[in-house]
Amino acid sequence: AFAPDGSSLCTSTLDGQLSLWDVEMAEQIGSIDGRKDVAGGRSAQSRVSALNNSSGMCFRALSYSADGEVLLAAGNSKYVCMYDVRHRTLLKRFQLSHNRSLDGVLDQLDSRRMTDAGSLDLVDD
């Protein structure tokens, strides 16, 4: 995402890092470690499972505020993060879904009423 004044650019890596670039000089001017922000939290005693594994979680959508002071980052996570660009800190993290990711819906199928022919609700008595 380009800053509103066009002087800087923000990119995201697949592990949740955000890099800030000077467009004119073509060099990196800073970074934001968003790996823990995109993944959410878990305690040190927690076991790694499919629900809390942070691998594969990254930011896919980046946008600056109109004044260029705040950066919004969202993506393969249930969180949208708001960062202060100047201080490179997390201002707020919004949880938009109780699902695992914003990319899809968590379907929990109830197969107790299913048969080989389909749902029992569709069978005439």
Anisotropy-based shape: elongated
Distance between the termini: 59 Å
What is the typical, i.e. mean, pLDDT?
Answer: 80
Radius of gyration: 20 Å
- Tell me the number of strands: 9
Strand residues, percent: 35-45%
User: Order of strands across the biggest sheet?
Assistant: 4-5-6-7
Count of discrete alpha- or pi-helical segments spanning 4 or more residues: 1
Helix and strand composition category: mainly beta
Largest sheet at a glance? 4 strands, antiparallel
Helix content: under 10%
Structure description:
The protein is mainly beta and 125 residues long. Helices cover 4% and strands 38% of the residues. A four-stranded antiparallel sheet has the order 4-5-6-7. A hairpin with a 2-residue loop joins strand 8 and strand 9. The protein is elongated, with a radius of gyration of 20 Å. The model has no long low-confidence stretch (mean pLDDT 80).
